[in-house]
Design goal:
- There is one protein chain.
- With 116 residues, the chain is mainly beta.
- It has one domain (14-115).
- It is built from no helices and 11 strands.
- The strands form 4 sheets. Strands 2, 5, 6, 10 and 11 form a 5-stranded antiparallel beta sheet that branches. The protein has a two-stranded antiparallel sheet with strand order 1-7.
- The radius of gyration is 15 Å and the shape is elongated.
- The two termini are 16 Å apart.
């Protein structure tokens, strides 16, 4: 996945705008094994670390995130690596979040999905 603001590289760099991408598989994730369960997914899924959308402003470059490498699920005090898309067939959801100051303060910017 690549993110690039429309006018990147032109004019003054905007103030930082932190985003995180959430990728939710079709099924809930087992908190112990990290493997898919039979029940439908309800949470955010696997998320990337927040990045400043404008961090590549001067060069006009893009922010690149790779799934599953850059994504993790967070359960209480446990972190689980993202599973490969092929390990959980069905409808996946991809959400871009604006992170406003902490792991529980975020707003949905855009949502899309794909079938695997």
């Amino acid at each position: 996945m690549e993110l690039r603001p429309k006018d990147a590289g032109e004019g003054k760099r905007p103030a930082p705008y932190y985003v995180s991408v959430g990728i939710r598989p079709p099924h809930e994730t087992d908190r112990t094994t990290g493997r898919p369960l039979r029940s439908a997914a309800k949470g955010i899924g696997f998320t990337s670390k927040p990045v400043d959308l404008y961090s590549q402003w001067a060069s006009g470059g893009t922010i690149k995130l790779s799934y599953p490498k850059d994504f993790r699920a967070h359960f209480d005090n446990r972190t689980v690596d993202a599973i490969p898309v092929g390990d959980d067939r069905g409808d996946w959801t991809v959400v871009l979040y604006h992170v406003e100051g902490g792991p529980t303060k975020f707003t949905t910017v855009v949502c899309n999905g794909f079938h695997a």
